[in-house]
Specification:
This protein has 417 residues and is an alpha/beta fold. The protein has 16 helices and 14 strands. It has two domains: 165 residues, Aspartate Aminotransferase, domain 1, CATH 3.90.1150.180; 235 residues, Type I PLP-dependent aspartate aminotransferase-like (Major domain) (Aspartate Aminotransferase, domain 2, 3-Layer(aba) Sandwich). α3 runs antiparallel to α13, α5 crosses α12 and α14 runs parallel beside α16. InterPro entries: PyrdxlP-dep_Trfase, PyrdxlP-dep_Trfase_major, SelA-like, TAT_signal.
Amino acid sequence: MTANRRQVIKTMGALPIAAAVPAAGMLSASAAEATAAPHAGALGGRDLFAEVGIEPLINARGTMTYLSGNLMLPEVVDAIRATSHEFVNMYELQDAVGAKLAELLDCEAAMVTAGAASALAIGTAAVLTGTDEEKIKALPFLPGPRREVVIQKSHRYVFDQNVRMAGVDFVEVEGPREMERAINDKTVMGLFFNAASSWYGTPDSVSREQFVEIAKRHKIPTFIDAAADVPPMERLFEYQRMGFDLVTFSGGKIIRGPQSAGILLGRRDLIEAAKLNFSPYEAPIGRTMKVNKEEIFGMYAAIKSYLERDHDREWDDWVDRTERIARAVRRVPTVEAEMVVPPGPANEFPGLEVTWDQDTVQISPDEVIERLRDGRPRIEVAGGGDTLGIAVVTLRADQVQIVARRVHRMLADAARG
């Protein structure tokens, strides 16, 4: 992916006017799938959403877990269906799929986890226990002093609880010197939250390269949480080549695997220890994070598909979606719409920001969000304050025009009022 694709584009008018959606024949099988609009929840004539009394929604907010992440690729669904009719030895399956993933991702070893949060827990457990059965049984209450994990102060985040649940304390540092001083005989690992700068807008006080170099010199393993950090695809390879001992990615975001799955990759000895702390073993802390055979096969299919995807064409399709929505809403006086690409490393893909003069268009972004959520069909968008945020990467192709029409109509009605 070229560098200019990752820049924030401030003037949508400067973008080339693309056709509505590239012809299905020009897309990969996965992209072409997006042009289809199957009956939601249909199964042999049954609408399962209606049957349980819940209404599906259009997700124009992003790959949020509470909105069920992203839609699985057709090949992922096919893998789930194709493997649901047979039994398998789960130890053998995890080993076999892990070997295939390691080959695809050019790393020592890999495994499928119950999402990136699960990988944080069992990866930390692996560092604490190795292959020692007594330690595995003892977690999170290992005998002796509490073990410590070094983390930058600006990297503390909600998901670090998944590390602490293995039975460790965090030691917060700022800068390379503090990191050096913080490492002692109780230190078992260094944790790097890769999206911290994206989340908080604060530069890392210790760069990734410095973090790895200091930890290696002190012979402690490093773990990087890169859950939402593709695209670009190269990040699947970058961090383990940089020297991180453990790396995790979410499976249910842009990779479009099962939302309840992720991958953990890295040093062979640590991956083997992580497996011992995971299901199908019956006693370890990871037993509660079970993944079934269908999710493991689905994650394998998703990674394989993601590596084979035409990423430039996919990016162009995302840009086209922002253009179409922007053209629609700009027809309302004072409304401005610009495509933005977050600087990364997390969620580095195009989205749309919409603003307007609220004296002319007499509705606030918060009111738009609420009315879209309460309308039919239900639409979830982001934003608040002075800005409406519209994600396009989670939309089906047939939903782009629905979102454009609904937002335009709402703003136009407020302008006439």
